[in-house]
Amino acid sequence: MEQYDVLIVGAGHGGAQAAIALRQGKFAGSIAVIGDEPELPYERPPLSKEYLAGDKSFDRILIRQPAFWEERQVTMLPGRRVVAVDPAAHRVATADGAEIGYGKLIWAAGGRARRLSCQGHDLIGVHTVRTRADADRMIAELPAVTNAVVIGGGFIGLEAAAVLAKFGKHVTLLEALDRVMARVAGPDLSNFYQEEHRAHGVDVRLGVAVTAIEGEGNVTGVRLADGSVVPADLVVVGIGIVPAVEPLIAAGAEGGNGVRVDAQCRTSLPDIFAVGDCALHANRFADGAAVRLESVQNATDQASVAAKTILGEDVAYDATPWFWSNQYDLKLQTIGLSIGYDQAVVRGDPATRSFSVVHLKQGKVIALDCVNATKDYVQGRKLVETGAVIDPARLADTTVPLKEMVSG
What we know:
Layout: E1 2-9, H1 13-24, E2 31-34, H2 50-53, H3 66-71, E3 74-77, E4 82-86, E5 91-94, E6 99-107, E7 111-113, E8 126-127, H4 132-141, E9 147-151, H5 155-166, E10 170-175, H6 187-199, E11 203-206, E12 210-216, E13 218-224, E14 229-231, E15 234-237, E16 241-243, H7 246-250, E17 255-256, E18 258-260, E19 272-274, E20 279-282, E21 290-291, H8 296-310, E22 322-327, E23 330-336, E24 343-347, E25 355-361, E26 364-371, H9 374-386, H10 392-396
Parallel strand pairs: 1-2, 1-6, 2-3, 6-19, 8-15, 9-10, 9-15, 10-11, 18-20
Antiparallel strand pairs: 4-5, 5-6, 7-16, 12-13, 13-14, 17-18, 20-21, 22-23, 23-26, 24-25, 25-26
Helix pairs in contact: 1-8
């Protein structure tokens, strides 16, 4: 049986960073990273943006080149999936029937794309965007595509819609709620992005329900609840992820929507940590509520905390959340969490395509959404971290840099 001092399950941002941080901290034991894809760890965000658009080759989105892992004696176990965990015996079982022993286990398995459950969900031409293989299948089909339908108005859906529109496809975007990005942004930002996509020729339809995917073998259309059918040669489904935690929950770990971890990223099971998209953790930027954050920032920062804890350091996860999204020539940068905000201040004029939305809760700054406004994003971090209380009229005044408001 293979045996490693630290076994990392998941070869994404969190898994890669855990291995990097352990070696940076002079961890001398054996480390292995097991992932269910055949590739070495790579960046996922470009899959729906630069990689799909052909602006970045796969080699350019590798987190590290192969020699990096070899030099640091990190064993890569690609193309293998963990299906069971035995916390008492300190070992995992893989889908190919092998068992691997561990001293410490870091679970960084992320999640899998949520799929439609309606008729036709498995037709050729229906795609999710979670892995390189997903993106490659879409890229291969694109030359023959005239009509594309994107289901879901979150970041993944909007980013894919932007790329497809740039390719000259006729794109229809279907969102079940009454605005796009409803779970991550306020109405001001949603309205701005809806109109931007419409200006680029995307048919954005809100408050619509999908009842079936039409076609025989290959997709030909998407049927809506009103009985109409939207023609489609290609469908992109961007309706979130399902956290990949079943083996941990089955082994007795606390959780449900993710696996619950403490401030050191430890699960309730001995010697097992969890980081990234699948880790349900109390976050002070959410007023201490238990949340899962699906971001590169969260994955890498939690991985560093888990590694440092294994190295014996006294650390706790308390990183400031940040996110980004590239659509057309728009760079959205978010700092903080706008959960539960009660006031939004627009700073700048959306018509100029450079502005920020500052979210307040009980008078305190809790988050900023910055569109082509990197200076606000950088300077606004301090306001979020300190929960600054600032007059909304002053926040809206673009002649006053945010850094001048830090002291109040």
